[in-house]
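Schema walk-through. Below, the input block comes first and the output block second. Nothing else is stored per chain. Lengths vary across the set, and this one has 217 residues.
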Amino acid sequence: MTSELLPIALGVALSPAPVLAVGVMLLAHRASAAGLGFTAGWVVALGSLTGVAAAVSGAVSPSSGLARASYPIQVAFGAALLGIAARQWFTRPDADAKVVAPKWMTSAAAFGPGRAAVLGVVLVVANPKVVPLCLAAGREIGSTSAAGAAAVAVGVFTVVAGSTVIVPACAQLVAGPRMRPGLEAMEAWLIAHYTPVVCLTLVVVGALLIVTGARGI
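--- output ---
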């Protein structure tokens, strides 16, 4: 993986929602099935989105208007994410306010593997942090790699980007109930610090989009 792709992949991996979702499912009654279903949906969606972006980038001339326009759009999107991060930070609940888990967590805990897989896909395609990073990664891969090398690069990027979901799901298969204390601690910490983690992720992703986009302008 190139030095340009690694920080983009890590930006995707830092997204807290999928990590929290897989943790919730691995703690539920149908832990392994739901966790693997979510992981499959998440990974397939990441790979598909990045692969499509790489294919389009590879078919478009770097000097075309479409290719040139993608960079300032990316910078503007990154700046917007920084603005969202600032807004969320300054409107966050008071430190002594009661911590409430996101509403979707209650539903996700009861998901079977099919609905879990759908949630994995949704958390990619409807995530304003993940989509632009996958598109940026695909553009980088498609513009710098031949077809065969691009497929390998997409695969490696997907594994690294999805690692924070893949690792807990695989660990659950190997360790079983022994994973429960660690998963419970991870879930409790993410719920307690959800807003700061989201804000930090938005800042990191926004900065990545601005830096990588500015290089192409």
